[in-house]
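Workshop exercise sheet. Pairs work together: one partner reads the sequence aloud, the other fills in the structure field after running the prediction. Swap roles for the next sheet.
Pair: D.N. / O.F.
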Amino acid sequence: MLTPPMPPMPARIANLPRDERGYPVPWFVAWVDGKPVFPVADAAKMRMAVDENRCWVCGQKNDDMLAFVIGPMCGINRTSSEPPSHVNCAIFSAQACPFLTKPKMKRIDCSDIGAVDPAGIMLERNPGVCAVWITKRYELFRATKGVLFEIGEPRLIHWFCEGRKATREEICESIRTGLPALQRLADEEGEEAKEHLLRAEMAFRKLIPAIEHS
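Structure field:
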């Protein structure tokens, strides 16, 4: 039995293998000694996802519309360390993944089983809010320790916090608390980087939903 609450599962996810608790195991998850290690992605799956256009969550072939599950800082940079998924697989992940639905949950250290950090510079924090960024394109580019995904213009963005629709205030708070880390990196790189970050932040803020009036 699944531990409630669990949102309705898309058919593709319902067909995934389950762990001992009954939770579906995303396709990308690495298995060690016959058991899934949820925080660790299988490097071979990364290559397959890119080369064969597979959904990062269910492993089946992607549709024309691609969805990236990202935090606000990745939204500002328009960069993801993970390949895209089906839209409904991404929305399910945003509603069900423990790390994405529990703002106080911290990343698990899996270095003892040989896990390595993803490419690029990872911010060691739980953003508390995530976006399902729906687009039709992305580009790969080389970064520290591997490749990253430059995500295309959004056709639609769904915002989530604690598995539900995020409020504008929650999104803005996540930006406020995460932006200093990007600003420090930009300061180290110089004036051009700082100007680029400012432009990226201003463009990203236009994507935040307006205040809802009752």
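Discussion prompt: Strands lie at 29-32, 35-41, 66-70, 79-80, 130-135, 138-143, 146-151, 156-161, 164-165. What would you look at next?
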